Amino acid sequence: MGGCRRVGVAVDFSPCSRKALQWAVDNLVRKGDHLILVSVRPGGYYETGELQLWETTGAPLIPLSDFLDLDNMKKYEVSPDPETIDIVSTAANQKEIIVLMKIFWGDAREKLCESIDSIPLDCLVIGNRGLGKIKRALMGSVSNFVVNNASCPVTVVKSHD
């Protein structure tokens, strides 16, 4: 398979999303690929400003250099953790990949599925919190919804913590 691929990883900066990100870096991305971190923030009501403009389509793709500037990320209401920053910075340098971030606001299940077509992504990697059957039935599983509704291959990385 030639050319660059757009590999998406759903991130919420939790341990299970870091595990999915690390799995994608170790097992999926290769030289020349675009690694796109897809983050979904809870929906809110924004009267003015950039967030109101981005509420439907999501923020523009954010390059790694901007992602590393924590003050810059405040305008997106995102606080990347040091471990995630280390994973993507190391991957960008060692694997010679382009790292970008796309932020959406709203329901994670729906926005992750929408991101596949709007970015567009060739595949998506998502973590699994390991909810039990009762919690999954009551709260719903984001990964299960995405697997059943996505228009591209989805890999679920289970968290055994």
TrEMBL record:
Superkingdom, natural source: Eukaryota
Pfam families: Usp
InterPro entries: Rossmann-like_a/b/a_fold, Universal_stress_UspA, UspA
Limits of the UspA domain: 5-158
Protein name per its UniProtKB record: UspA domain-containing protein
